[in-house]
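subagent[fold] <- orchestrator: predict structure for attached chain, return tokens only, no commentary.
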Amino acid sequence: MELLKEDEEYISSLLKQGKKVEAIAFVKNKTGMTLKEAKDYIDKKNLLISEEDEQYLSSLINENKELEAVVFLHKSKDMSLEEAKNYTDRLILKKNLKTNKKSSHKWGYIFDEKLNMYVPNLPRQKKLLKIMLSIFLVLLVVTLIQLIFLDRSSDIKMIIFRFSISGILVLIITLPLGSLSIRYIENKLKKLKNLELSNQFEVKAFISNFELFLHGSLLLIFIIVVPILFIKIEYKDYKGIFYLLGLITITIFGSYEFLKKLKNRKYSLNIDSKGITLLYNKNEIKSIKFEKINFIKFYAKKFKGGENNIPTIEIFDMGKNIFTELDIKISDYILLKMYFEKYKILVKDEFKKI
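subagent[fold] -> orchestrator:
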């Protein structure tokens, strides 16, 4: 015999009251199931979080009653305290993400719905470029008129003439650079929007070649300077010895950081429908299944005076331990967001801009 809608509602009310045994007995008597079948049915039903349960939990979280939410899940859904706390924490994170999305605003950026991120405000940049072009043409005309009627004996006219020439020179450099920047961003956005998601792909750790070149060049300079200073230094020159020790320390630290960057380039992530595998030099280190992922975080590493323009991904397991942390390319950042959205994985996106 099948359970009616009224029976299902009665079972749900029993489970909410923590009367699991009564619910099992009711199902057994009503349907003719064996005790094991009735228990399996209730266990399966008990783990499901209904829309009504979600609303109730959300109301508790909005009232800052996280403990009551954990207790509700522990008693009515047969979750362990750790599972109940993790589930509640995820609901709190979802709430915070929605709040941040509504309130977030970035100066000079606009939100692109297709990419689901902030991109440079190109319409504003183009408008600014047109204004600059108009100023350039006006300055050019004014300078030509000044040139015709230029009186070198007048200090004021000469100062105005110099300012006009300086403005023209600045705009001659700025206008082409601004135009190239806009075209570069347009092409980049076009490529990002045309990215296609596959069922399996690899994400390699990203380190800028320019950054490596700059770091390596500076390191080479220090390596050359240290022996020269070592030869020229006098034994009693304590100031020189201090400088030498400082240079040696910087060189050692710089070498360590440079080798660390080269090593980090060998890390990669293999993504498929089951989960994520961390690789080093194509060899598997560890893996995690999607159901074991608590949430994913994207962010930009901060430094004094600003933040990096390279996205970093952090993957957290159910114990809130970091499975891995990796710098990635913008294109991989877009692909990963699309992929995690497909598999309903919670993403905390603090990068959100190009």
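orchestrator: received. Logging for downstream: The two ends are 59 Å apart (CA to CA). Residues 18 and 75 are 6 Å apart (CA to CA).
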